[in-house]
Amino acid sequence: MDKTALITGAAHRIGAEIARSVHLLGYRVAIHYRSNRDAAFRLAASLNDERAGSAITLQGDLNLARTAQTLIETIEVQWGRLDLLVNNASIFEPSDPSIACVEAFDSTIATNIRAPYLLSTNAAVLLRDSSGCIVNLTDISASRPPSGYAVYCASKAGLIGLTKAMARDLAPEIRVNGVSPGAIIWAEDEDAEHRAEVVEKTPLGRQGATTDIAQAVCYLAEAPYVTGHILEVDGGRSIYI
């Protein structure tokens, strides 16, 4: 029976690359999106052209607590199983330490850590039946925070803690790991000088690619003796002194 994967935030960028790579491994893919409908539909169509009936799209706002249950229930009805959950969807926004914006804080926490928790708990029965796994997309900023992104960094640090805790709680049937990207996609407001500084502090001396993250996810999806691990895919930047 075909393995099945759910990837959140999979309409474009890293999420779309993960969907394509997992699909190449033979998985059926559920492409979650919030608002980027056209990109999600194009991706699903291209995957279905390669293998008929192998991709669907699922819309949902992860800021809403009920969305997690709805997504898992839809997959159960559609395919009857789930082998891989990739919590990729994320809000990446700056936060001004001089202004306490409760709405922005709640939105970031809801998408970046509450949603992965709710999706994981709702998916646990299906994943346990398939001896499946969960891969959470974290960030090296969780331990190396840039200025101006306190809430985002806190959410990713919390996701790392959640990953390790759930690896214990869901073992031995379900493996839970994380992939922690470095410089893969630049923020729109990052200037050339800052980009050059980041690359200079990266031992491999270059920016990474979305394929680097997708390959790491694929490895963890198929690594039966790995759980509770955060795989840093950052060109060595996390070891820079």
Structure report:
With 241 residues, the chain is α/β, with parallel strands linked by helices. 46% of the residues lie in helices and 15% in strands. It is built from seven helices and seven strands. A seven-stranded parallel β-sheet has the order 3-2-1-4-5-6-7, sandwiched between helices. The protein is globular, with a radius of gyration of 17 Å.
Strand-helix topology:
Layout: E1 4-7, H1 13-24, E2 28-33, H2 37-50, E3 55-59, H3 66-79, E4 84-87, H4 102-130, E5 133-137, H5 150-170, E6 175-181, H6 192-200, H7 210-221, E7 230-233
* Rg over CA atoms: 17 Å
Oligomer: single chain
> In which range does the helix fraction lie?
40-55%
Q: Based on the coordinates given, report the CATH architecture.
A: 3-Layer(aba) Sandwich
CATH topology heading? Rossmann fold
Major sheet characteristics: 7 strands, parallel
Strands of the biggest beta sheet: in what spatial order?
3-2-1-4-5-6-7
- CATH homologous superfamily identity: NAD(P)-binding Rossmann-like Domain
